[in-house]
């Protein structure tokens, strides 16, 4: 008589490999999402630049404050959006403004950006030969542009009425020559940046800047 072999209970392991694949798939998706967010954050950071406005000459504190006001007016005219974290836009790119010299920036108002140093661009505003001397001091470290001060009677030129009117609405005062200088510098930078979507390559930016040395409408 043969012995009967007892039946042992069978434990089934359900879908061991699909479970593993699912877990790994979720991990992979999480990594992908994180990478996308990092990429977007990097893009947002890259789509911004810092410009220093360096004023030379007499009455630097007053002139620097006025130049910044003119620059801000131009930076607020196009490409604005909600929840701004910069000082405006030029060429469709967020701009952060750093007024220089630092010890002369006590009267500057209206800046909300977070400028980086060293800055991407330095614009020197003021009379010669002081402007050229200051430009040489920065040229080895960054892109340096020079904006000449408009001659006497600048506010009688064609088209300046519109600028004067917009400035009065924004600041409740008539713009002086340094406000016009700052505004014109920002308008020129806007034209130079727009086709590049940024401030590089440097040669192209400088070419765009030079192309508006005259004839740029107010």
Could you please describe the fold and organization of this structure?
The protein is an alpha/beta fold. It has two domains: 14-46; 48-210, Rossmann fold, CATH 3.40.50. 43% of the residues lie in helices and 13% in strands. It has six helices and five strands; from the N terminus they run H-E-H-E-E-E-H-E-H-H-H. It has helices at 16-46, 60-75, 130-138, 160-171, 177-193, 202-210, and strands at 48-55, 89-90, 93-100, 121-125, 143-147. Helix 3 (130-138) links the parallel strand 4 (121-125) and strand 5 (143-147). Helix 2 (60-75) packs across helix 5 (177-193) and helix 5 (177-193) packs across helix 6 (202-210). 32% of the residues are buried. Residues 10-45 have low confidence and may be disordered.
A few lines on this structure:
Helices cover 43% and strands 13% of the residues. The chain is of the alpha/beta class and 218 residues long. It has two domains: 14-46; 48-210, 3-Layer(aba) Sandwich (Rossmann fold), CATH 3.40.50.2300.
Our estimate of the beta-strand percent is 5-15%
Spatial strand order of the main sheet: 2-3-1-4-5
Name the CATH class of the largest domain. Answer: Alpha Beta
Instruction: Label the overall shape.
Output: globular
Q: What structural class results from the helix and strand content?
A: alpha/beta
Q: Write out the CATH superfamily name of the largest domain.
A: Response regulator
**Oligomeric composition of the shown chains:** single chain
Helix content: 40-55%
Number of domains: 2
**CATH domain topology of the largest domain:** Rossmann fold
Our Rg estimate from Cα atoms comes to 29 Å
Element string (H = helix, E = strand): HEHEEEHEHHH
Our count of helices gives: 6
Extended strand count: 5
Low-confidence region ranges: 10-45
Largest sheet: 5 strands, mixed
